Amino acid sequence: MEEHFILRVPQSVADRLDKILNEDPASASDDFLDLAFQDARTGKFTIGDDQFPASLHDLPCVLESYKTYDDNVLIKTADIGQIIMVRERGDTAPDGPEYKHGLTPAMRDARRRRFRREPDINPDLIQQVENDLQSIMAGGTARDVDILLRCC
């Protein structure tokens, strides 16, 4: 398995990046690429003399990437769970560590629209049930439980 991530850049950066990646290595220009993080989630993307703010976000679901050698058989190469977003100077970063929109328009606000919500459960109730289960497994009974015996 390889390690992959999605790099999303503005159109102006994409044009320059495409030019750098497609040029002949023998006639390489002075433009260079660099991605450096200041902390776990924020950093700078450098292309030539220009720097752009970048941020690392988790995707709402895991994507799979594949490659092929013969255009017939696909081989899974990685699970992709993060996106590095490069922004123009002055643009704001998405809120939180998770990018809530995914990669395609169909995944817009995917966490809220497509995935099951976490149930609202009282933590005290969970602790009480856990204690009752441990008591039952030890040979005792649960607290605050009435036992009714019925005869046919």
Automatic annotation (TrEMBL):
<comment type="similarity">
    <text>Belongs to the TAF7 family.</text>
</comment>
<dbReference type="Pfam" id="PF04658">
    <property type="entry name" value="TAFII55_N"/>
</dbReference>
<keyword id="KW-0805">Transcription regulation</keyword>
<dbReference type="InterPro" id="IPR037817">
    <property type="entry name" value="TAF7"/>
</dbReference>
<dbReference type="InterPro" id="IPR006751">
    <property type="entry name" value="TAFII55_prot_cons_reg"/>
</dbReference>
<protein>
    <recommendedName>
        <fullName>TAFII55 protein conserved region domain-containing protein</fullName>
    </recommendedName>
</protein>
<feature type="domain" description="TAFII55 protein conserved region">
    <location>
        <begin position="1"/>
        <end position="144"/>
    </location>
</feature>
<keyword id="KW-0804">Transcription</keyword>
<dbReference type="GO" id="GO:0006367">
    <property type="term" value="P:transcription initiation at RNA polymerase II promoter"/>
</dbReference>
<dbReference type="GO" id="GO:0005669">
    <property type="term" value="C:transcription factor TFIID complex"/>
</dbReference>
<keyword id="KW-0539">Nucleus</keyword>
